[in-house]
Hints:
CATH architecture of the largest domain: Sandwich
Number of helices: 2
Number of domains: 4
Radius of gyration: 28 Å
Number of strands: 35
CATH class of the largest domain: Mainly Beta
Structural class: mainly beta
Helix content: under 10%
CATH superfamily of the largest domain: Domain of unknown function DUF5300
Distance between the termini: 41 Å
CATH topology of the largest domain: Immunoglobulin-like
Low-confidence stretches: 1-30
Strand content: over 45%
Amino acid sequence: MFLAQKQAHLWKPIFVSVLLLSLIACSGSSDDEDATGYIKFYNASADSPAIFMTIDEDIDSDADDEIERTLSGVSYASAGTRTELETQSYYLELAWQDEDSSARTDLEIVYESQIDISEDETQWVIMTGSVQSPTVNIYSIPELDEDELSDDQDDDLFTLRVINLHQSIVDVDIYLSLEDETFNEAELLVSAQADLMTEKLKREQDQYKVYITQSGQSEVLFSSEDISFVTGVQYLLALRENQGVGGSEFVVDNITSGQITSYEALESLANLTIYNGLNSNDLLPSYMASVNLSIDGKTTVPSTADLSYSEFSDAFELESSDYRLSVFNNNTDEVMLQNRLISAPQNADRTVFLYWTDEAVDDDGDGDVDENDDGIIDEIRPIVSTLTVENSNLSRFYDKQVTMLNLLNTDTFSRVTFYFVKSDEIIDTAENTRSLLQGTSSNMVLLNNTYQLFVVTEIDNNDIILHESTLVLDQESDDLFLLLEESESSASGYAVRVESQKTTSNDE
């Protein structure tokens, strides 16, 4: 449909059927004792930790035959498994894990009510807002019966619903176009108001693009890449706030009973930050712990010039694409790294960490790096290596993500273990541990607490402590980078540098 035609539709009312349930205490039991329905949880609360959902037949009873299930924790922008239950009324609890145990009695409840499980329907439990005072809505979606499924299969149709969970843009229009079309050809699918789920819509199975505008307007706030609607299942498009850096207000989650796929805006930019982890190097005496950086042969922004050791550049924007990164020695203009692939996906916020490695020199290419057979490598040259990680842009309330990076270059050992030790633990009993090889990274989500951080390695069958410090995580803390590096001031020769994952945008 052309733009003029599309605009002509904007004044026409689009009626939706609101499926929000009223939570009532009456029993939803069926005459059929074998009747069953389903429940599914979707976490759209951006500052929440993983949320556990408990379904209990009788909250005051511990009878062996009672149905009581606490399902696995569901992180932000994720959906739990669809769970089958007998049709009746249940108690519903949503909670987060404030101790190491995920047992129901050790969870901190943020929402509790009753819910009726109805025959051949899925109750969608959706949590939005802040976890400190969340909004929880429940929507009932009927299962497609065999006749409808058969008809849809014969006609190559799929079923689609839309829900707008954006906290500030509360009235939107959603358009669809085929994958090889643009917004000019898109057709108005439906209008969606905040927290109201639309009635079911039928469309032909195909690859589509999704567009979002404010209601009655033609400025596109979000356009997706191709989204596959190629089976006859029921799809739910959940529109939520973009927590990334790409510029669009929206991210779209495409949810079915079995999976969830997130789509960033097609026009989204990416953010890139550089960390100079190149300290002084005996193999390169002319290097003065400062580098010039370029992307595809061009110095990208002034903030990356003369970047000194242990400094982060300002974050700078890039079009979503693949790039070549080069690093130059300021002292000699020598190229230290060339044509290193850096990918910048839509809406991504990444940091590239520069650090030293080295290699034995084999100038004649014969594979022999000890030409005089004295048992010593003839020559070793320094190599600039990179480690690229995703930055976290969430403002977590009760927990924090820590990203550990092993930036060491040593032949003495290759693996280290990070231990996060609470006040009632020792290293041997610590539950939160992670091992890293050199040049690798790993993420861990930790509950707010005070930890003793130890980094330990094994040398000659002995456990050696490389680093020890206190790490305090609280409501004011950012998600953190923990960088294991060489340190002249440390007795072990190694130390962990703690840095925020929040990037600083370049305004130039």
